[in-house]
Amino acid sequence: MLIINSKKELIDILRRDRECNHKITLIPTMGNLHEGHLSLISKSEDYLSKKIVSIFVNPLQFNDSSDYTSYPKTLEQDLEALEKRKIDYVFVPTKEEMMRNIIHTDELPWGFTNLLCGAYRGRHFDGVQKIIREFFEIIKPDFAIFGEKDFQQYLLIKYIAERYFRETNIKIILSPTIRMDNGLAFSSRNTLLSDEQINKASLAFQSIKSTVVDYFHKTGLLNFNNLIPQSANLTYQYVKIYDEKYLYDKHGLGANSNSDQKIFRLFIALIIDNVRLIDNYPVERYDIS
Ligand code: PAF
Hints:
The protein has 289 residues and is α/β, with parallel strands linked by helices. It has 11 helices and 9 strands. The site of pantoate (PAF) has 10 residues, from strand 2 and helix 8.
C-alpha cells in the first residue's frame, strides 16, 4: 500500500497503471474510518481494479468552522486499518496541496442549495462539488464508491459525473448504509456522542421513522411538521419524504426519463446535544394519484 501526498505523483502512478490496462476505483473519505467506510472498501472488491482511498477532511464543505475543527481526525489508525485491506494507494493531500489550482465551479442546481442538507448547510454541497471534481480530474476513476447514508451527496456526485465527466464515463456506485446493532447508521460524528446519546439518537430516528412512514401510508401526505416533537437537547432539522426521481429531475438529471414509477425515501436530519446526524430510508412504493 503506497501513501501518496502529491497530486503529481498520483497522476504519474495512475498513468502507468492505465498503460498496463488497469481500471481505477476511487473511495473518497474524510478519514476517521468506521464500519461504513470499510463496507465501501469491501464493495470495491467487486470491481477488478487498482483501489485508491483518499483521506481529506474537506474544509470547504463545513459551513461551521467549529464543526470542521472538532471533526475527528485519526490518520494513524486509518492507515493501520487500510493496511489490512486490499488497497493499492492512499491519497492524503495536505490542505495546500489539495486547494492548489482548484477548479472554478459553476453554481449548483437549486435542489442542492434549497433542499434537505442543501437548505441547512450553506455552501456545503458547493464545497463537496469542488473537491470531488478535483479528485475526478486528477484520478479519472472508472468506478467511484459512495455511501447511501449521504444520499443527497450521491445524487450530487451523479450530477457531477454526468455534467462534467461524460467522456471519462465514471461509474458511480452506491453502497448500502451500515448500521450498529441498535439501528443507528455508522458515522464519524457518532464518536462525539456518549453511549447514552447514541441510544437516544437511535431511538429518535426509529420512532420518527415509524410514525412518519405510518402517517404517509395512511394519508399520502408528505408534510410532517406537526408530528415532530422538539426538545431542548433534540431537535429535528428536517423530516421529509421525497420521490427520488423528483429530487433527481429537479437536479437537472433524468429529464428524459419517462418512467412514472415513484421511489420514495424518507430523509431525516436531527441535532442531538449539538451533534448533527443524518439518515435516510427507502419507503415502500405508494401510489398517489
Ligand atoms: O462523504 C464524505 O466523506 C465527503 O463528503 C467526501 C465525499 C469525501 C467529499 O469531501
